[in-house]
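REQUEST ID: PR-0412
SUBMITTED BY: lab tech R.K.
PRIORITY: routine
TASK: structure prediction, single protein chain
INPUT:
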Amino acid sequence: MMTHDHDHDHDHDHDHGDPHAPRKDHDAGPASPYEVLERALRELLIETGVLTAREIADQIDLMDSRSPALGAKVIARAWTTPAFKAQLLSDTRSALASMSIDIGGLAEFRVIENTQQVHNVVVCTLCSCYPKMLLGVPPAWYKSLAYRSRTVVAPRAVLAEFGLELPHSVEVRVHDSTADLRYIVLPERPMGTDAWSEQQLAAIITRDCMIGTAVPVVSANRAAV
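STATUS: complete
OUTPUT:
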């Protein structure tokens, strides 16, 4: 049963000075209901002593610093270290902690592995829940109604629009993220990369590979290195 207790990804500029100052709006338009709610909640947390303005600002800075490069580093480690891969699949939180990656405690993270028989793709059908702590800010298309609705109904067609044509022998599994559970895809390691370092491997792991709308590609130039 899907939960409706989703969070919503909205990109805002944050004022790290006066915690009660109005949020800057470069469009000079009225604040959205979500912005009004966010400000009210932020002020309440500060006034009741649950959090300080500095703690809130630090968390915003932490989120802004996350990017797909962090997730790619995790995947590369899994490709080269079998013990870490096993831990990542069975207990994602502890595996990430072993790399000094803190994903917080608001949601569980689950890693789903692509194989020659199964290809996984991640979506959030109700809003835009996304593993931001590993991949950073979600792309606009991930939040679009077209992607959220069509991926569940016609995943192969959606993947084909991303340029990913899968054989009919490969099963496509769609995973619906929620506020309580976020997914990240562990792609198959491409052939011909056995001698590559983690850094070299991380360079071919894109954000879309970890969502499931792409697979890692080894170019002729990279293969020759």
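NOTES: Residues 104 and 133 are 8 Å apart (CA to CA).
REVIEWED BY: pending
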